[in-house]
Design a protein that fits this description.
alpha/beta; 6-stranded antiparallel sheet; 5-stranded parallel sheet; globular
């Protein structure tokens, strides 16, 4: 009987031939709920979507891969660390409440090595590791493995230090699939002090005569609602007091956009979020995207959300959206899949730091492929091929000189042959320099 794996990740979980391909073995049903460029708040959203309810309930293993994006959000947007850490805590709490086998995949983050002034990279990475220990989740710590073996110096020397070689990630995924039965349930008996409530709402339930459309390609399959300039989104009374935390958008790509990441980031729309106290104008990039409102926005009786038809100036840019030509929109409509709402616990307290009472009993880092051996093989191959290239180049030069010499012997005149002989050239040099004592 096939086993079910649910993958909650970011771009490292979507790279072709990488982690997802390794997990997707013949005895595995893989459900990849990952979106590139998304952090822990997106993972909460996927856990709360009604479309994913059966997938989550029937999962034999849920894999979390998100630490790199949490660090990225901290680096990109200052003063968000507390919110980022709060929702990381909420995510782990929600995963624990599922009573499923949870595997935390901690990927290597180069910023933890170079992070001399801003310590957020080390702090957020540590939070993920500590929470996996606190909740007694299964752990594969590729981050620490890279540091202990010093392999990070080799693997991050490329132009893309945040995506490990697809071959290594493939083998890691395959190792996970082949050892699925060895992962364990959490044995913690915990009582929570926090009480956050999350809700997912579709805009089709919030506006009249919604224009519902479907999109499917080789990667994603989803439904979205087009929000035109005349549409106003309001929220029923039961949702007053909730925050609009995140928005899942799906703007179908224009022809050729997928072949250019820059083009994808430069195609976007913006929306206006307005209540009785503030107004936020936020952009959302092309294709499948989830981003959250970094500024708190609480729903009240005066709240409306609409497409930014008047091209009001952007007040809050989204991750990976590049505003061009000072335009607030390159699309004439908004395309929304869902809203993520949250009613925060005002008494939120970060998980206590008393981790010393726990020991790692579910560390599966031995499933990491032999990255040291791979490094040595690549270095040896590179060294030998570079020498081969040097020899080949030298042989080509010798061959070229030989051809020139043969041509010279065949076609040059007797006078040219004499003038190119060494005694003649030496005598000529002595005559030229004889007028100058030093030169002679």
């Amino acid at each position: 009987m096939n086993k079910n794996i649910v993958l909650l990740g970011a771009s490292n979980s979507r790279i072709p031939g990488g982690l997802q391909a390794g997990l997707n073995q013949k005895n595995i049903n893989l459900y990849n709920l990952s979106i590139g460029g998304t952090d822990s708040i997106h993972k909460i959203y996927e856990l709360k979507r009604k479309e994913n309810k059966d997938l989550i309930q029937n999962a034999d293993l849920i894999i979390l891969e998100v630490n790199l994006m949490d660090v990225t959000m901290s680096f990109c947007y200052k003063n968000l660390d507390f919110k980022i850490i709060k929702y990381i805590n909420y995510l782990y709490e929600q995963l624990y409440l599922l009573k499923k086998k949870i595997l935390v995949l901690l990927l290597f983050d180069l910023r933890c090595i170079n992070d001399n002034k801003n310590k957020s990279a080390n702090f957020i990475t540590k939070i993920h590791k500590q929470l996996s220990l606190f909740y007694d989740f299964n752990l594969i710590d590729l981050h620490q493995k890279m540091i202990d073996t010093k392999c990070f110096k080799f693997y991050t020397a490329s132009l893309d230090p945040y995506h490990l070689l697809a071959t290594i990630m493939y083998q890691l995924g395959k190792n996970i699939s082949e050892n699925l039965n060895y992962f364990k349930f959490s044995e913690r008996k915990l009582i929570f002090e926090t009480n956050a409530i999350f809700k997912v709402l579709s805009p089709s339930d919030l506006i009249s005569n919604p224009c519902l459309k479907a999109y499917k390609d080789l990667i994603y399959n989803d439904k979205y609602v087009e929000i035109l300039d005349k549409d106003l989104i309001s929220f029923p009374k039961p949702y007053i007091g909730y925050k609009i935390l995140g928005v899942h958008t799906f703007l179908p790509t224009k022809k050729g956009v997928l072949s250019s990441y820059q083009s994808m980031c430069e195609n976007y729309f913006s929306m206006v979020f307005k209540n009785s106290k503030k107004e936020i104008v936020k952009s959302f990039r092309c294709y499948n995207n989830f981003d959250w409102l970094y500024d708190d926005f609480v729903i009240d009786s005066d709240t409306i959300v609409m497409y930014n038809k008047d091209n009001l100036p952007i007040t809050e840019i989204s991750y990976e959206t590049t505003i061009i030509n000072n335009l607030s929109n390159t699309s004439d409509k908004a395309s929304i899949v869902n809203f993520l709402l949250v009613k925060d616990d005002p008494n939120f307290i970060q998980i206590k730091n008393n981790f010393s009472q726990y020991k790692y009993t579910k560390d599966f880092s031995y499933l990491i492929p032999p990255i040291e051996m791979y490094r040595d093989i690549i270095e040896e191959y590179t060294l030998k091929t570079s020498k081969l290239i040097e020899i080949t180049s030298l042989n080509q030069q010798i061959s070229s000189l030989t051809q020139q010499l043969n041509h010279f012997k065949t076609f040059s005149t007797a006078k040219q042959r004499i003038q190119n002989q060494l005694p003649y050239r030496l005598g000529q040099a002595m005559i030229i320099n004889s007028k100058n004592f030093l030169g002679y």
